[in-house]
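Quick one: C-alpha coordinates for this chain, please?
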Amino acid sequence: MTSATPNLQAEWLESDRFGGFASGTVSGERTRRYHALLLAAITPPTGRVVLVNGIEAWLEGPDGIISLTTQRYTPDVSHPEGYQGITAFSVTPWPTWRFAAGLTKEILVGRDGAETVLRWRRTRDDAPSRLVVRPLLSGRDYHALHRRNESFDFAGDVIGGNVAWQPYRDLPAILALTNGAYEQAPEWYRNFLYSAEAARGLDCVEDLASPGLFRFDLAHDDAVIVLRAGGSRSESAAACASRTIEAERARRAARPATWLAADSYLVDRGAGRTLIAGFPWFTDWGRDTFIAMRGLMIGTGRLAEARDILLAWSDAVSEGMLPNRFPDAGQAPEYNAVDASLWFVVAVHELLGATAAAHAPIEPDARTRLIGAVEAVLRGYAAGTRFGIGVDADGLLRAGAAGIQLTWMDAKLGDWVVTPRIGKPVEVQALWINALRIGAAWSPDWEIPARKAQAAFEARFPDPATGGLFDVVDVDHQSGTVDRRLRPNQILAVGGLPFAALQGDSAWRVVDLVELLLLTPLGLRTLSPDHPDYVAHYRGGPRERDGAYHQGTAWPWLMGPFVEAWLRVRGSTEAAKQEARRRFMAPLLEHLGTAGLGHVSEVVDGDPPYTPGGCPFQAWSLGELIRIECLLASADASCLAPQLETTDGR
Protein backbone atom coordinates (compact mmCIF):
# COMPACT_ATOMS: atom_id res chain seq x y z
CA MET A 1 0.00 0.00 0.00
CA THR A 2 2.05 2.89 -1.38
CA SER A 3 1.04 6.49 -1.97
CA ALA A 4 2.94 9.30 -3.68
CA THR A 5 0.37 11.70 -2.18
CA PRO A 6 -0.02 10.17 1.27
CA ASN A 7 -2.95 10.70 3.60
CA LEU A 8 -1.00 12.38 6.38
CA GLN A 9 -3.65 11.75 9.06
CA ALA A 10 -3.86 8.00 8.39
CA GLU A 11 -2.34 5.78 11.08
CA TRP A 12 0.10 2.90 10.89
CA LEU A 13 0.57 0.01 13.33
CA GLU A 14 3.43 -2.38 14.07
CA SER A 15 2.79 -4.92 16.84
CA ASP A 16 4.67 -7.69 18.60
CA ARG A 17 3.22 -10.97 19.88
CA PHE A 18 3.19 -9.89 23.52
CA GLY A 19 0.70 -7.01 23.32
CA GLY A 20 3.22 -4.25 22.71
CA PHE A 21 3.22 -2.08 19.62
CA ALA A 22 4.41 1.05 17.85
CA SER A 23 2.01 3.36 16.05
CA GLY A 24 1.65 6.85 14.69
CA THR A 25 0.39 8.98 11.84
CA VAL A 26 1.83 9.23 8.36
CA SER A 27 2.64 12.89 9.02
CA GLY A 28 4.69 11.87 12.07
CA GLU A 29 2.62 14.02 14.43
CA ARG A 30 1.48 12.16 17.53
CA THR A 31 -2.25 12.82 17.72
CA ARG A 32 -3.02 10.21 20.40
CA ARG A 33 -1.53 9.41 23.80
CA TYR A 34 -1.09 5.89 22.43
CA HIS A 35 1.19 6.90 19.56
CA ALA A 36 4.65 5.71 20.49
CA LEU A 37 7.77 4.00 19.20
CA LEU A 38 8.26 1.69 22.19
CA LEU A 39 5.06 0.67 23.99
CA ALA A 40 5.70 -2.57 25.87
CA ALA A 41 3.42 -5.09 27.60
CA ILE A 42 5.04 -5.89 30.95
CA THR A 43 2.56 -8.68 31.80
CA PRO A 44 1.61 -9.89 28.30
CA PRO A 45 -0.73 -8.89 26.87
CA THR A 46 -1.50 -6.36 29.60
CA GLY A 47 0.53 -4.04 31.81
CA ARG A 48 1.26 -1.82 28.83
CA VAL A 49 3.60 1.12 29.36
CA VAL A 50 4.86 3.82 27.02
CA LEU A 51 8.64 4.11 27.23
CA VAL A 52 9.67 5.95 24.04
CA ASN A 53 6.93 8.26 22.78
CA GLY A 54 8.71 9.60 19.74
CA ILE A 55 11.74 11.44 18.42
CA GLU A 56 12.92 14.76 17.12
CA ALA A 57 15.05 14.21 14.02
CA TRP A 58 16.74 16.58 11.61
CA LEU A 59 19.43 16.77 8.97
CA GLU A 60 22.30 19.24 9.15
CA GLY A 61 23.63 20.36 5.77
CA PRO A 62 25.26 23.28 4.03
CA ASP A 63 21.89 24.99 3.67
CA GLY A 64 21.01 24.63 7.36
CA ILE A 65 18.70 22.32 9.28
CA ILE A 66 16.05 20.19 7.55
CA SER A 67 13.40 18.90 9.97
CA LEU A 68 12.20 15.33 9.50
CA THR A 69 9.63 15.21 12.31
CA THR A 70 6.44 17.03 13.23
CA GLN A 71 5.23 18.03 16.68
CA ARG A 72 2.17 19.90 17.91
CA TYR A 73 2.17 22.05 21.04
CA THR A 74 -0.44 24.01 22.95
CA PRO A 75 -2.42 26.06 22.21
CA ASP A 76 -2.33 24.65 18.64
CA VAL A 77 1.11 25.24 17.17
CA SER A 78 2.82 22.86 14.74
CA HIS A 79 6.62 22.95 15.00
CA PRO A 80 8.67 21.70 13.35
CA GLU A 81 6.76 20.73 10.22
CA GLY A 82 8.78 17.87 8.82
CA TYR A 83 5.65 16.49 7.16
CA GLN A 84 6.10 19.09 4.44
CA GLY A 85 9.16 17.20 3.21
CA ILE A 86 7.37 13.83 2.86
CA THR A 87 7.05 12.92 -0.81
CA ALA A 88 5.81 9.32 -0.53
CA PHE A 89 4.76 6.77 2.05
CA SER A 90 4.29 3.00 2.02
CA VAL A 91 2.99 0.71 4.74
CA THR A 92 4.32 -2.37 2.90
CA PRO A 93 6.30 -4.30 3.99
CA TRP A 94 6.51 -1.85 6.93
CA PRO A 95 6.05 1.91 7.34
CA THR A 96 8.50 3.70 5.05
CA TRP A 97 8.75 7.41 4.31
CA ARG A 98 10.54 9.10 1.44
CA PHE A 99 11.69 12.70 1.94
CA ALA A 100 12.48 15.42 -0.56
CA ALA A 101 15.81 15.88 1.21
CA GLY A 102 17.00 12.59 -0.32
CA LEU A 103 16.51 9.91 2.31
CA THR A 104 14.07 7.29 3.54
CA LYS A 105 12.97 6.40 7.06
CA GLU A 106 11.70 2.96 8.07
CA ILE A 107 10.00 1.75 11.26
CA LEU A 108 9.27 -1.89 12.03
CA VAL A 109 8.60 -4.00 15.09
CA GLY A 110 10.07 -7.47 15.43
CA ARG A 111 7.14 -9.78 15.97
CA ASP A 112 9.03 -12.17 18.23
CA GLY A 113 11.64 -9.84 19.66
CA ALA A 114 9.43 -7.02 21.00
CA GLU A 115 11.80 -4.40 19.64
CA THR A 116 11.39 -1.41 17.35
CA VAL A 117 13.86 -0.82 14.52
CA LEU A 118 14.32 2.63 13.00
CA ARG A 119 16.50 3.01 9.94
CA TRP A 120 17.43 6.04 7.82
CA ARG A 121 19.26 5.77 4.51
CA ARG A 122 20.22 8.22 1.79
CA THR A 123 18.65 7.87 -1.64
CA ARG A 124 20.93 10.44 -3.30
CA ASP A 125 24.67 10.96 -2.95
CA ASP A 126 24.19 14.72 -2.68
CA ALA A 127 21.73 14.44 0.20
CA PRO A 128 22.79 15.87 3.59
CA SER A 129 24.69 13.24 5.55
CA ARG A 130 24.57 14.48 9.15
CA LEU A 131 21.50 13.11 10.96
CA VAL A 132 20.61 14.05 14.54
CA VAL A 133 17.98 12.17 16.55
CA ARG A 134 16.61 13.13 19.99
CA PRO A 135 14.53 10.42 21.75
CA LEU A 136 11.46 11.65 23.65
CA LEU A 137 10.81 9.49 26.71
CA SER A 138 8.17 9.07 29.39
CA GLY A 139 7.55 5.86 31.36
CA ARG A 140 3.83 5.74 32.05
CA ASP A 141 0.72 3.61 31.74
CA TYR A 142 -0.43 3.73 28.13
CA HIS A 143 -3.80 5.23 29.10
CA ALA A 144 -2.17 8.02 31.13
CA LEU A 145 -0.20 11.18 30.34
CA HIS A 146 3.23 12.29 31.55
CA ARG A 147 4.17 15.64 33.07
CA ARG A 148 7.48 17.23 34.03
CA ASN A 149 8.64 15.97 37.44
CA GLU A 150 11.76 15.81 39.56
CA SER A 151 11.71 12.02 39.82
CA PHE A 152 12.62 11.44 36.17
CA ASP A 153 16.17 10.09 35.96
CA PHE A 154 17.99 11.39 32.86
CA ALA A 155 21.17 9.40 33.50
CA GLY A 156 22.28 7.09 30.72
CA ASP A 157 24.51 4.03 30.90
CA VAL A 158 26.55 4.27 27.70
CA ILE A 159 28.62 1.70 25.81
CA GLY A 160 29.71 3.14 22.46
CA GLY A 161 26.54 4.20 20.67
CA ASN A 162 24.35 2.03 22.88
CA VAL A 163 22.53 3.61 25.82
CA ALA A 164 20.30 2.36 28.62
CA TRP A 165 18.08 4.70 30.61
CA GLN A 166 15.85 3.85 33.54
CA PRO A 167 13.78 6.95 34.22
CA TYR A 168 11.69 5.24 36.89
CA ARG A 169 12.84 2.36 39.08
CA ASP A 170 9.55 0.43 38.87
CA LEU A 171 9.68 0.17 35.07
CA PRO A 172 12.02 -1.68 32.72
CA ALA A 173 15.10 0.07 31.45
CA ILE A 174 14.88 1.66 28.00
CA LEU A 175 17.59 0.32 25.74
CA ALA A 176 18.71 2.03 22.54
CA LEU A 177 21.17 0.14 20.35
CA THR A 178 22.61 2.45 17.70
CA ASN A 179 25.48 2.80 15.25
CA GLY A 180 25.76 6.49 16.05
CA ALA A 181 27.44 8.60 18.72
CA TYR A 182 25.53 9.58 21.87
CA GLU A 183 25.74 12.95 23.57
CA GLN A 184 24.13 13.54 26.98
CA ALA A 185 22.03 16.73 26.77
CA PRO A 186 18.95 16.51 29.01
CA GLU A 187 15.92 18.62 28.13
CA TRP A 188 12.22 18.69 28.96
CA TYR A 189 9.88 19.16 26.01
CA ARG A 190 6.71 20.74 27.40
CA ASN A 191 3.03 20.82 26.41
CA PHE A 192 2.68 18.47 23.47
CA LEU A 193 -0.91 18.62 22.23
CA TYR A 194 -2.67 15.42 21.12
CA SER A 195 -5.47 16.54 18.82
CA ALA A 196 -7.32 13.22 18.68
CA GLU A 197 -7.53 13.14 22.47
CA ALA A 198 -8.82 16.72 22.49
CA ALA A 199 -11.50 15.78 19.96
CA ARG A 200 -12.55 12.90 22.24
CA GLY A 201 -12.99 15.30 25.16
CA LEU A 202 -10.06 13.83 27.09
CA ASP A 203 -6.89 15.20 28.66
CA CYS A 204 -4.56 15.91 25.79
CA VAL A 205 -1.36 17.65 26.98
CA GLU A 206 1.91 15.88 27.81
CA ASP A 207 5.52 16.67 28.76
CA LEU A 208 8.32 14.41 27.56
CA ALA A 209 11.94 14.09 28.60
CA SER A 210 14.87 13.91 26.21
CA PRO A 211 18.08 12.76 27.93
CA GLY A 212 20.37 13.40 24.95
CA LEU A 213 20.88 13.03 21.23
CA PHE A 214 22.42 10.65 18.70
CA ARG A 215 24.53 11.77 15.74
CA PHE A 216 24.93 9.71 12.57
CA ASP A 217 26.98 10.05 9.39
CA LEU A 218 24.76 8.80 6.57
CA ALA A 219 27.62 9.07 4.09
CA HIS A 220 29.35 6.29 6.00
CA ASP A 221 26.40 3.95 6.66
CA ASP A 222 22.66 3.77 7.18
CA ALA A 223 21.59 5.11 10.58
CA VAL A 224 20.05 2.46 12.83
CA ILE A 225 18.33 2.62 16.22
CA VAL A 226 16.89 -0.47 17.90
CA LEU A 227 14.61 0.23 20.89
CA ARG A 228 13.90 -2.39 23.56
CA ALA A 229 12.46 -2.67 27.04
CA GLY A 230 15.47 -4.03 28.89
CA GLY A 231 18.16 -6.33 27.55
CA SER A 232 21.88 -6.29 26.89
CA ARG A 233 23.71 -3.09 25.84
CA SER A 234 26.58 -5.00 24.25
CA GLU A 235 24.83 -6.16 21.08
CA SER A 236 25.59 -4.58 17.72
CA ALA A 237 22.75 -2.37 16.48
CA ALA A 238 23.48 -3.21 12.85
CA ALA A 239 23.47 -6.97 13.50
CA CYS A 240 20.30 -6.79 15.58
CA ALA A 241 18.50 -4.62 13.01
CA SER A 242 19.60 -6.85 10.14
CA ARG A 243 18.34 -9.97 11.92
CA THR A 244 14.97 -8.39 12.67
CA ILE A 245 14.58 -6.95 9.17
CA GLU A 246 15.33 -10.26 7.48
CA ALA A 247 13.01 -12.19 9.80
CA GLU A 248 10.19 -9.72 9.19
CA ARG A 249 10.80 -9.61 5.45
CA ALA A 250 10.45 -13.41 5.30
CA ARG A 251 7.35 -13.43 7.51
CA ARG A 252 5.58 -10.76 5.48
CA ALA A 253 6.49 -12.02 2.01
CA ALA A 254 3.84 -13.27 -0.40
CA ARG A 255 0.91 -13.15 2.01
CA PRO A 256 -2.46 -11.49 1.36
CA ALA A 257 -2.57 -8.05 2.95
CA THR A 258 -5.53 -8.80 5.19
CA TRP A 259 -3.98 -12.08 6.36
CA LEU A 260 -0.79 -10.26 7.30
CA ALA A 261 -2.77 -7.61 9.17
CA ALA A 262 -4.52 -10.43 11.05
CA ASP A 263 -1.20 -11.35 12.68
CA SER A 264 -1.24 -8.04 14.55
CA TYR A 265 -3.98 -9.22 16.93
CA LEU A 266 -2.55 -12.63 17.88
CA VAL A 267 -0.69 -12.42 21.20
CA ASP A 268 0.49 -14.55 24.07
CA ARG A 269 -1.41 -14.78 27.33
CA GLY A 270 0.53 -16.87 29.83
CA ALA A 271 1.25 -20.22 28.20
CA GLY A 272 -1.67 -19.80 25.78
CA ARG A 273 -2.76 -17.47 22.99
CA THR A 274 -5.46 -14.84 22.65
CA LEU A 275 -6.55 -12.01 20.38
CA ILE A 276 -6.34 -8.29 21.05
CA ALA A 277 -9.76 -6.73 20.42
CA GLY A 278 -8.34 -3.56 18.91
CA PHE A 279 -5.49 -1.10 18.86
CA PRO A 280 -4.56 1.19 20.43
CA TRP A 281 -6.58 0.90 23.65
CA PHE A 282 -8.22 -2.54 23.91
CA THR A 283 -6.74 -5.74 25.31
CA ASP A 284 -8.39 -9.15 24.84
CA TRP A 285 -12.16 -9.40 25.21
CA GLY A 286 -14.07 -12.68 25.12
CA ARG A 287 -16.85 -11.73 22.72
CA ASP A 288 -14.46 -9.94 20.38
CA THR A 289 -12.00 -12.84 20.42
CA PHE A 290 -14.55 -15.47 19.44
CA ILE A 291 -16.13 -13.34 16.70
CA ALA A 292 -12.81 -12.14 15.30
CA MET A 293 -11.03 -15.50 15.29
CA ARG A 294 -13.43 -16.98 12.73
CA GLY A 295 -11.89 -14.71 10.12
CA LEU A 296 -8.48 -13.84 11.55
CA MET A 297 -7.50 -17.40 12.46
CA ILE A 298 -9.87 -19.99 10.98
CA GLY A 299 -10.42 -18.14 7.71
CA THR A 300 -6.67 -17.75 7.19
CA GLY A 301 -5.92 -21.38 8.00
CA ARG A 302 -4.22 -20.72 11.35
CA LEU A 303 -6.01 -23.64 12.92
CA ALA A 304 -3.37 -24.51 15.52
CA GLU A 305 -3.48 -20.95 16.83
CA ALA A 306 -7.29 -21.02 16.85
CA ARG A 307 -7.17 -24.26 18.84
CA ASP A 308 -4.74 -22.74 21.34
CA ILE A 309 -6.92 -19.66 21.80
CA LEU A 310 -10.06 -21.68 22.44
CA LEU A 311 -8.27 -24.07 24.78
CA ALA A 312 -6.89 -21.17 26.80
CA TRP A 313 -10.34 -19.62 27.15
CA SER A 314 -12.07 -22.95 27.82
CA ASP A 315 -10.44 -23.15 31.24
CA ALA A 316 -12.23 -19.95 32.27
CA VAL A 317 -15.83 -21.30 32.03
CA SER A 318 -17.67 -20.44 35.26
CA GLU A 319 -21.35 -21.26 35.80
CA GLY A 320 -21.70 -21.55 32.04
CA MET A 321 -20.19 -18.14 31.38
CA LEU A 322 -16.90 -17.07 29.89
CA PRO A 323 -15.32 -13.77 30.89
CA ASN A 324 -15.79 -10.88 28.54
CA ARG A 325 -12.67 -9.08 29.71
CA PHE A 326 -9.41 -9.57 31.55
CA PRO A 327 -8.67 -6.18 33.15
CA ASP A 328 -5.31 -4.54 32.44
CA ALA A 329 -4.13 -4.54 36.01
CA GLY A 330 -4.61 -8.28 36.50
CA GLN A 331 -7.80 -8.18 38.59
CA ALA A 332 -10.38 -10.96 38.47
CA PRO A 333 -11.92 -11.61 35.04
CA GLU A 334 -15.23 -9.88 34.34
CA TYR A 335 -18.15 -12.23 33.66
CA ASN A 336 -20.59 -9.71 32.24
CA ALA A 337 -21.70 -10.88 28.79
CA VAL A 338 -24.60 -13.15 27.88
CA ASP A 339 -23.31 -13.75 24.35
CA ALA A 340 -19.56 -14.31 24.81
CA SER A 341 -20.04 -17.96 25.83
CA LEU A 342 -22.37 -18.58 22.90
CA TRP A 343 -19.89 -17.11 20.43
CA PHE A 344 -17.32 -19.47 21.97
CA VAL A 345 -19.57 -22.42 21.11
CA VAL A 346 -19.86 -21.17 17.53
CA ALA A 347 -16.08 -20.75 17.26
CA VAL A 348 -15.48 -24.29 18.54
CA HIS A 349 -17.95 -25.64 15.98
CA GLU A 350 -16.26 -23.79 13.14
CA LEU A 351 -12.77 -24.82 14.24
CA LEU A 352 -13.73 -28.49 14.35
CA GLY A 353 -15.37 -28.16 10.95
CA ALA A 354 -12.31 -26.45 9.47
CA THR A 355 -9.88 -29.02 10.86
CA ALA A 356 -12.02 -31.83 9.44
CA ALA A 357 -12.16 -30.10 6.05
CA ALA A 358 -8.39 -29.69 6.11
CA HIS A 359 -7.96 -33.37 7.04
CA ALA A 360 -6.08 -32.21 10.14
CA PRO A 361 -8.29 -33.12 13.11
CA ILE A 362 -7.15 -31.76 16.43
CA GLU A 363 -5.80 -34.02 19.14
CA PRO A 364 -8.39 -36.15 20.98
CA ASP A 365 -7.58 -34.57 24.35
CA ALA A 366 -8.00 -31.06 22.95
CA ARG A 367 -11.26 -32.02 21.26
CA THR A 368 -12.55 -33.49 24.51
CA ARG A 369 -11.68 -30.32 26.41
CA LEU A 370 -13.41 -28.10 23.87
CA ILE A 371 -16.56 -30.20 23.69
CA GLY A 372 -16.56 -30.37 27.50
CA ALA A 373 -16.43 -26.58 27.66
CA VAL A 374 -19.36 -26.34 25.22
CA GLU A 375 -21.34 -28.75 27.36
CA ALA A 376 -20.52 -26.69 30.46
CA VAL A 377 -21.81 -23.54 28.76
CA LEU A 378 -25.07 -25.20 27.72
CA ARG A 379 -25.69 -26.79 31.12
CA GLY A 380 -24.82 -23.58 32.94
CA TYR A 381 -27.26 -21.55 30.85
CA ALA A 382 -29.96 -24.21 31.07
CA ALA A 383 -29.66 -24.26 34.88
CA GLY A 384 -29.53 -20.47 35.14
CA THR A 385 -26.54 -18.29 35.95
CA ARG A 386 -25.50 -14.72 36.74
CA PHE A 387 -27.56 -11.62 35.90
CA GLY A 388 -30.83 -13.47 35.39
CA ILE A 389 -29.46 -15.49 32.47
CA GLY A 390 -31.43 -18.69 32.00
CA VAL A 391 -33.92 -20.62 29.90
CA ASP A 392 -37.52 -19.42 30.13
CA ALA A 393 -40.64 -21.55 29.83
CA ASP A 394 -40.81 -20.91 26.08
CA GLY A 395 -37.30 -22.33 25.58
CA LEU A 396 -35.75 -18.95 24.78
CA LEU A 397 -32.89 -17.39 26.74
CA ARG A 398 -33.69 -14.52 29.06
CA ALA A 399 -30.97 -12.19 30.33
CA GLY A 400 -30.50 -8.94 32.08
CA ALA A 401 -30.53 -7.04 35.33
CA ALA A 402 -30.82 -3.35 36.07
CA GLY A 403 -27.60 -1.42 35.58
CA ILE A 404 -25.81 -4.23 33.70
CA GLN A 405 -25.05 -4.28 29.98
CA LEU A 406 -24.87 -7.90 28.82
CA THR A 407 -25.11 -7.81 25.01
CA TRP A 408 -22.59 -6.46 22.51
CA MET A 409 -24.47 -3.15 22.64
CA ASP A 410 -22.71 -2.46 25.91
CA ALA A 411 -22.17 1.31 26.20
CA LYS A 412 -22.32 2.45 29.80
CA LEU A 413 -21.24 5.71 31.41
CA GLY A 414 -21.49 5.76 35.19
CA ASP A 415 -24.93 4.40 36.02
CA TRP A 416 -26.29 5.12 32.54
CA VAL A 417 -26.72 1.96 30.46
CA VAL A 418 -27.47 3.38 27.02
CA THR A 419 -29.02 0.26 25.47
CA PRO A 420 -29.93 -2.10 28.35
CA ARG A 421 -31.89 -4.60 26.18
CA ILE A 422 -33.10 -6.59 29.20
CA GLY A 423 -35.31 -9.54 28.32
CA LYS A 424 -34.80 -11.75 25.26
CA PRO A 425 -32.60 -9.97 22.70
CA VAL A 426 -32.99 -11.24 19.15
CA GLU A 427 -29.33 -12.07 18.39
CA VAL A 428 -28.97 -13.86 21.73
CA GLN A 429 -31.79 -16.18 20.67
CA ALA A 430 -30.13 -16.83 17.31
CA LEU A 431 -26.91 -17.65 19.16
CA TRP A 432 -28.76 -19.84 21.67
CA ILE A 433 -30.46 -21.82 18.90
CA ASN A 434 -27.09 -22.29 17.19
CA ALA A 435 -25.44 -23.37 20.45
CA LEU A 436 -28.19 -25.93 21.10
CA ARG A 437 -27.96 -27.33 17.57
CA ILE A 438 -24.18 -27.54 17.87
CA GLY A 439 -24.45 -29.28 21.25
CA ALA A 440 -27.05 -31.67 19.88
CA ALA A 441 -24.48 -33.03 17.44
CA TRP A 442 -22.58 -34.40 20.45
CA SER A 443 -25.38 -34.99 22.94
CA PRO A 444 -29.04 -35.83 22.23
CA ASP A 445 -29.97 -33.94 25.41
CA TRP A 446 -30.06 -30.71 23.40
CA GLU A 447 -32.23 -31.85 20.49
CA ILE A 448 -35.61 -31.11 22.09
CA PRO A 449 -34.46 -27.75 23.61
CA ALA A 450 -33.18 -26.74 20.17
CA ARG A 451 -36.51 -27.50 18.49
CA LYS A 452 -38.45 -25.75 21.26
CA ALA A 453 -36.31 -22.60 21.06
CA GLN A 454 -36.58 -22.56 17.27
CA ALA A 455 -40.37 -22.82 17.36
CA ALA A 456 -40.65 -20.06 19.96
CA PHE A 457 -38.35 -17.81 17.96
CA GLU A 458 -40.39 -18.22 14.80
CA ALA A 459 -43.62 -17.55 16.70
CA ARG A 460 -42.53 -14.60 18.83
CA PHE A 461 -40.00 -12.47 16.95
CA PRO A 462 -41.49 -11.56 13.55
CA ASP A 463 -42.86 -8.00 13.53
CA PRO A 464 -45.87 -7.87 11.20
CA ALA A 465 -45.69 -4.09 11.04
CA THR A 466 -42.21 -3.98 9.48
CA GLY A 467 -41.58 -7.46 8.10
CA GLY A 468 -38.47 -7.60 10.26
CA LEU A 469 -37.88 -8.89 13.78
CA PHE A 470 -38.39 -7.36 17.19
CA ASP A 471 -35.10 -6.39 18.81
CA VAL A 472 -36.17 -7.67 22.25
CA VAL A 473 -39.22 -9.57 23.46
CA ASP A 474 -40.39 -9.78 27.08
CA VAL A 475 -38.69 -6.43 27.66
CA ASP A 476 -37.48 -5.99 31.25
CA HIS A 477 -38.77 -9.54 31.81
CA GLN A 478 -42.38 -8.38 31.30
CA SER A 479 -44.16 -11.12 29.37
CA GLY A 480 -45.56 -10.09 26.00
CA THR A 481 -43.81 -6.73 25.72
CA VAL A 482 -41.64 -5.98 22.70
CA ASP A 483 -38.99 -3.50 21.58
CA ARG A 484 -39.62 -2.89 17.89
CA ARG A 485 -36.77 -0.43 17.32
CA LEU A 486 -35.07 -1.35 14.08
CA ARG A 487 -31.56 -2.47 14.90
CA PRO A 488 -29.07 -4.67 13.02
CA ASN A 489 -29.08 -7.49 15.58
CA GLN A 490 -31.81 -9.30 13.66
CA ILE A 491 -29.44 -9.94 10.74
CA LEU A 492 -27.81 -12.67 12.85
CA ALA A 493 -31.03 -14.67 12.54
CA VAL A 494 -30.24 -15.02 8.82
CA GLY A 495 -26.46 -14.69 8.43
CA GLY A 496 -23.28 -14.67 10.48
CA LEU A 497 -23.95 -17.96 12.28
CA PRO A 498 -23.67 -21.60 11.16
CA PHE A 499 -27.45 -22.15 11.19
CA ALA A 500 -30.03 -19.61 10.06
CA ALA A 501 -32.88 -19.18 12.55
CA LEU A 502 -35.10 -17.82 9.77
CA GLN A 503 -35.84 -19.30 6.36
CA GLY A 504 -37.69 -18.41 3.19
CA ASP A 505 -39.80 -15.26 2.92
CA SER A 506 -39.15 -14.25 6.53
CA ALA A 507 -35.40 -14.25 5.89
CA TRP A 508 -35.85 -12.23 2.68
CA ARG A 509 -37.89 -9.59 4.50
CA VAL A 510 -35.28 -9.17 7.23
CA VAL A 511 -32.44 -8.78 4.73
CA ASP A 512 -34.42 -6.32 2.58
CA LEU A 513 -35.38 -4.21 5.62
CA VAL A 514 -31.84 -4.09 6.96
CA GLU A 515 -30.47 -3.22 3.53
CA LEU A 516 -33.03 -0.45 3.07
CA LEU A 517 -32.59 1.35 6.40
CA LEU A 518 -29.38 0.23 8.09
CA LEU A 519 -26.82 -0.47 5.37
CA THR A 520 -23.97 2.00 4.79
CA PRO A 521 -20.91 1.41 2.60
CA LEU A 522 -18.83 0.51 5.65
CA GLY A 523 -21.19 -1.17 8.09
CA LEU A 524 -24.70 -1.47 9.48
CA ARG A 525 -26.23 1.37 11.46
CA THR A 526 -27.15 0.42 15.01
CA LEU A 527 -30.49 2.22 14.84
CA SER A 528 -32.77 3.22 12.00
CA PRO A 529 -32.33 6.86 10.89
CA ASP A 530 -36.08 7.44 11.19
CA HIS A 531 -36.03 6.79 14.95
CA PRO A 532 -36.03 9.93 17.16
CA ASP A 533 -33.07 8.58 19.17
CA TYR A 534 -30.89 8.19 16.07
CA VAL A 535 -27.46 9.86 16.36
CA ALA A 536 -25.83 10.46 12.99
CA HIS A 537 -22.25 11.15 14.07
CA TYR A 538 -19.91 9.52 16.56
CA ARG A 539 -18.05 12.46 18.05
CA GLY A 540 -17.58 14.63 21.14
CA GLY A 541 -16.71 13.74 24.71
CA PRO A 542 -17.30 10.40 26.46
CA ARG A 543 -21.00 11.04 27.13
CA GLU A 544 -21.71 12.11 23.56
CA ARG A 545 -19.77 9.20 22.08
CA ASP A 546 -21.30 6.60 24.40
CA GLY A 547 -24.72 8.00 23.57
CA ALA A 548 -24.05 7.51 19.85
CA TYR A 549 -22.16 4.20 20.06
CA HIS A 550 -25.19 1.97 19.47
CA GLN A 551 -27.76 4.60 18.57
CA GLY A 552 -26.99 5.05 14.91
CA THR A 553 -23.23 4.64 14.62
CA ALA A 554 -22.40 2.01 11.98
CA TRP A 555 -20.23 -1.02 12.73
CA PRO A 556 -18.10 -2.66 10.01
CA TRP A 557 -18.05 -6.06 11.76
CA LEU A 558 -21.76 -6.42 10.98
CA MET A 559 -21.01 -6.45 7.26
CA GLY A 560 -19.94 -10.09 7.56
CA PRO A 561 -23.33 -11.28 8.88
CA PHE A 562 -25.11 -9.01 6.40
CA VAL A 563 -23.23 -10.27 3.34
CA GLU A 564 -23.72 -13.86 4.44
CA ALA A 565 -27.45 -13.25 4.96
CA TRP A 566 -27.70 -11.49 1.59
CA LEU A 567 -26.08 -14.46 -0.15
CA ARG A 568 -28.16 -16.99 1.74
CA VAL A 569 -31.45 -15.56 0.54
CA ARG A 570 -30.26 -15.04 -3.03
CA GLY A 571 -28.22 -18.16 -3.48
CA SER A 572 -24.44 -18.22 -3.62
CA THR A 573 -24.21 -17.97 -7.40
CA GLU A 574 -21.26 -16.41 -9.17
CA ALA A 575 -23.50 -13.55 -10.32
CA ALA A 576 -24.60 -12.85 -6.73
CA LYS A 577 -21.00 -13.01 -5.53
CA GLN A 578 -19.91 -10.59 -8.24
CA GLU A 579 -22.59 -8.10 -7.21
CA ALA A 580 -21.65 -8.51 -3.54
CA ARG A 581 -17.97 -7.93 -4.32
CA ARG A 582 -18.83 -4.68 -6.08
CA ARG A 583 -21.42 -3.37 -3.65
CA PHE A 584 -20.26 -4.62 -0.26
CA MET A 585 -16.61 -5.69 -0.33
CA ALA A 586 -15.11 -2.96 -2.53
CA PRO A 587 -15.83 -0.09 -0.08
CA LEU A 588 -14.27 -2.08 2.78
CA LEU A 589 -11.15 -2.79 0.73
CA GLU A 590 -10.88 0.89 -0.14
CA HIS A 591 -11.21 1.72 3.56
CA LEU A 592 -8.00 -0.25 4.23
CA GLY A 593 -6.09 2.76 2.92
CA THR A 594 -7.89 5.56 4.74
CA ALA A 595 -7.81 5.29 8.56
CA GLY A 596 -5.83 2.47 10.22
CA LEU A 597 -3.72 1.48 7.22
CA GLY A 598 -4.26 -2.13 6.21
CA HIS A 599 -6.98 -2.55 8.84
CA VAL A 600 -10.68 -1.82 9.38
CA SER A 601 -11.99 0.72 11.89
CA GLU A 602 -14.15 -0.08 14.88
CA VAL A 603 -17.01 2.23 13.86
CA VAL A 604 -18.03 4.82 11.27
CA ASP A 605 -20.63 7.56 11.32
CA GLY A 606 -24.14 6.51 10.36
CA ASP A 607 -24.46 9.48 7.98
CA PRO A 608 -22.23 10.49 5.05
CA PRO A 609 -19.34 10.83 4.64
CA TYR A 610 -19.19 7.85 7.06
CA THR A 611 -16.19 9.19 8.97
CA PRO A 612 -14.26 6.44 10.81
CA GLY A 613 -14.14 6.52 14.62
CA GLY A 614 -13.21 4.47 17.65
CA CYS A 615 -10.21 2.18 17.31
CA PRO A 616 -8.62 2.51 13.85
CA PHE A 617 -7.43 -1.11 14.10
CA GLN A 618 -10.29 -3.42 15.16
CA ALA A 619 -9.99 -7.21 15.25
CA TRP A 620 -13.56 -8.26 14.54
CA SER A 621 -13.92 -5.64 11.79
CA LEU A 622 -10.92 -7.09 9.96
CA GLY A 623 -11.97 -10.65 10.80
CA GLU A 624 -15.36 -10.16 9.19
CA LEU A 625 -13.77 -8.61 6.09
CA ILE A 626 -11.67 -11.77 5.77
CA ARG A 627 -14.82 -13.87 6.21
CA ILE A 628 -16.45 -11.83 3.43
CA GLU A 629 -13.42 -12.47 1.23
CA CYS A 630 -13.85 -16.19 1.92
CA LEU A 631 -17.60 -16.13 1.26
CA LEU A 632 -17.06 -14.37 -2.05
CA ALA A 633 -13.98 -16.32 -3.12
CA SER A 634 -13.91 -18.62 -6.12
CA ALA A 635 -14.36 -22.32 -5.50
CA ASP A 636 -10.62 -23.03 -5.69
CA ALA A 637 -9.60 -20.23 -3.31
CA SER A 638 -7.39 -21.07 -0.34
CA CYS A 639 -9.79 -20.27 2.49
CA LEU A 640 -10.90 -22.44 5.38
CA ALA A 641 -13.98 -20.48 6.46
CA PRO A 642 -17.07 -22.71 6.71
CA GLN A 643 -19.08 -23.15 3.54
CA LEU A 644 -22.19 -21.06 3.11
CA GLU A 645 -25.60 -22.62 3.55
CA THR A 646 -28.50 -21.18 1.53
CA THR A 647 -31.92 -20.61 3.07
CA ASP A 648 -35.05 -21.80 1.36
CA GLY A 649 -35.68 -19.24 -1.39
CA ARG A 650 -38.99 -17.61 -2.16
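The mean pLDDT is 95.
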